[in-house]
Amino acid sequence: MGENLILDREVEKAILIGVIDKSKNMTESLVKEYLDELDFLALTAGAETVKRFTQKMDYPHPKTFIGTGKLEEILDYLERNDDIKLVIFDDELSPSQLRNIERALQRKILDRTNLILDIFASRAQTANAKTQVELAQYQYLLPRLTRMWTHLERQRGGIGMRGPGESQIETDRRIILDKISKLKEDLLKIDKQKATQRKNRGKMVRVALVGYTNVGKSTLMNMISKSEVFAENKLFATLDTTVRKVVIQNVPFLLADTVGFIRKLPHNLVESFKSTLDEVREADIILHVVDISHPNFEDQIKVVNETMLEIDKREKPTFLVFNKIDAFTYVKKDEDDLLPKTRENYSLEELKQMWIAKGDTPCLFISAVHKQNVEEFREVVYNAVKEIHSARFPYNNFLYQDYSNLMD
Fold first, then answer.
1. How far apart are CA 337 and CA 356, in angstroms?
2. Which residues pair with 288 in a beta bridge?
3. Which of 2, 302, 360, 375 has the highest CB neighbour count under 10 A?
């Protein structure tokens, strides 16, 4: 298996490009939000965004994704700013679009998928994660084989180039297919090993933390399990599922921290990371962590719910854990302002009441960093785990005796 190419290098300057696609009912504000996230992805990969370009279109141009006029405007800007070597599009580009845009702009062109793959390549630590990322990379490269190989030969390293390795730059399609086949075999072996590990854990109740990337799952994991799972204010800080044994009062259970979800998550990554997401499929309880301080957390909830349906269609106890209440802010509406309230005008208490009133999913409101409402959170998790544990081990009377009532 090839090694991921990760180089020490200077921060690359980049421009971002998004299309306000009328055929998908996209708006300027929505595209701005998408580009904000793309900016964060670029930052995570090690790039500095210096300029954004957007264009309204009925549908993307089949040859160049954006119109020829916008392409000329971007080229003019790049010629006046020769130090910008990277152009990132907020959608997946077809192989022909990549070739045409690269020919016109004479810069390194990345799409959103390639950027996410690059971040995953830099974050993968274990053999499992590295194999999954490498498989997704080869599947992405295959239809772009000719362009990517010449691209790699012309410019070594850099964001988007942390691929399967320059020693494996080959134009033989059959060899790439052989590599994909071999990686799939490797993943099957890893899957069997992980399945054996899960069986060895017995029938302990399993709880999985899921959520959009960078909502604080790893911080919450550290707080509950008193462990040191890597947590960072960047997208996809952790790729591998981390499982810890946790005991609350007298009930033991397994807690899993999973990879974060994101909009437009590349299909190849969803496919290759299915073994990692087995912890979600096999979980008895789902804790859906949400960053309530994010201005569009409702959309993030929707993205996670849609991705969860792809992974596991079975209904199971699920709790919405609204994290980062300490970072929540809102703009108080003036009394003489007769315009309808917008999202930014709702206070934390109002949002709490709105989500609790929905009643379809139990809600908790916490701050994992500042340990606000942690006891309530522990109590809810304890009761949910205890109910399943009691049904699974009716004569067990728990593995740990609870002496808390005797302390009075």
1. 27
2. 210, 320
3. 2
Supply 49's token pair. Answer: 């965004």
Distance CA 261, CA 235 (A): 10
Give Cα separations from 211 to 53, 298, 317 (angstroms). 30, 12, 15
Is the pLDDT confidence value at 394 over 90? no
For 125, 265, 294, 329, the CA distances from 343, given in Å and listed in that order, are: 39, 26, 11, 11
Q: Which residues lie across from 51 on neighbouring strands?
A: 15
Pairing of strands 86-89, 318-323: unpaired
User: Residues 115-148: pLDDT tens digits?
Assistant: 988 888 887 777 777 888 888 888 888 877 654 4
Side-by-side strand order, sheet with 318-323:
242-248, 251-257, 206-211, 285-291, 318-323, 363-365
Q: Is the pLDDT of residue 64 over 90?
A: yes
The confidence band for 400, taking pLDDT boundaries of 50, 70 and 90, is low
How many CA atoms does the CB half-sphere of 386 hold within 13 Å? 15
Please give the pLDDT value at position 358: 86
User: How confident is residue 201, by pLDDT bands cut at 50, 70 and 90?
Assistant: low
| Residue 75: how many other CB atoms lie within 10 Å | 14
pTM summary value: 0.77
The interaxial angle of helices 95-105 and 68-80, nearest 10 deg, is: 40
